[in-house]
Structures are given as C-alpha cells and as structure tokens.
Fold this sequence. Notes:
Blueprint: H1 2-48
Amino acid sequence: MRTTLRALEGLLLYRGQRTARHNAWASVVEDRRRAHSRRETQRLLEATGTRRAGREHPA
C-alpha cells in the first residue's frame, strides 16, 4: 500500500511540475511578445516624432 501511494504521489508531483514548467514557459513567451510590441511602438513613435505621454506639453 505504501509503495502504491508513493508511486501515485510521484506521478501527481511530476504532472504538477510539468504543468508549472509549461505555465512558466508560456509566461516567458508572452513577455517576449509584449517586449517586442513595446519596441515596435517606440520605433514608430520615434519615427513619427510623436512625444510620449507625460513629457512636456506645449503651453
């Protein structure tokens, strides 16, 4: 009985770790996508001469 419980526990922990790794990788991919989008937006703003919000406003 003890061996069966340990085997089941090991299987559940393995699945949990696999899920955690998958979720972590999905977060990394999404962060990279957002960073790429920010860089592209920044390039476009600089190319068009548009100022970022929060900088000096004309009086």
